[in-house]
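Curious: why these numbers?
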Amino acid sequence: MASFSLPVLLDSQLALWSADLGVESPAAAGWLVDGALRVEVRPDLTICLGPWSHPFEVDDALEMLDLLAAALFGRARVWAYAHGEEPAGHRLEIAVDGAWLDAGGRSPRRRWFRAPVQTLLHNDRQPPAALQWGTAGRLPNAPWVGMLEVESAGPGTLPIDGELDLHLFKPKEVKGVVEAYIDACVERGLTDLRLVHGKGIGNLRRTVHALLDRHPAVERYRLGGMGEGSWGATLVTLREPEKAAPDDEP
């Protein structure tokens, strides 16, 4: 069955997890893993964990993997509330450092001064041996971010095609990676770049913009628009080679 339009990194990881879990790989209708907490990735990149759902964008592949790993392998749980068979709310919680952090949902509704019945939805599967947990909980509105440990790709292994995903690098590596990548693009005559830094709380975006403000090869830059990653990506225009500022004034 043909894969639907998932980011390559997400598609390949879901295929691996599918083999581990004994489920079908991502297909045109999405990706689904049944369990105590039902996990679904829809073709529009919405993740559904039981009654809880959240939409993502193409550039959010790593954040999606963080949330999916937490849900599949015991580090996310959903409280579902109901009056009889009528849903009355739900709440997602993420396990961080021995505590469960609130990750949002819909507050339970009372009826005639009666509290709804609550049900805990939680998977307790053992994670694959290759899965490495990282440090989550740094973003209050998305505490699952950082759940997985991601190995840096290393700037020397990057394809020079005008697109750079900074999620693959540790914060201390970003400055050197962006500078080296811009230099490599200049050497190859590429003038249009897209730097993916994600949304989050904006620290990475501010770091990237401060670097772009100082780089002599950068003519202008702007945040992405609709279909370009929105404020999770920055589009950069480099000066034409003959317009690049010289290193030394005559």
Notes: The chain has two domains: 8-122, 155-243. The CA atoms of residues 43 and 229 lie 17 Å apart.
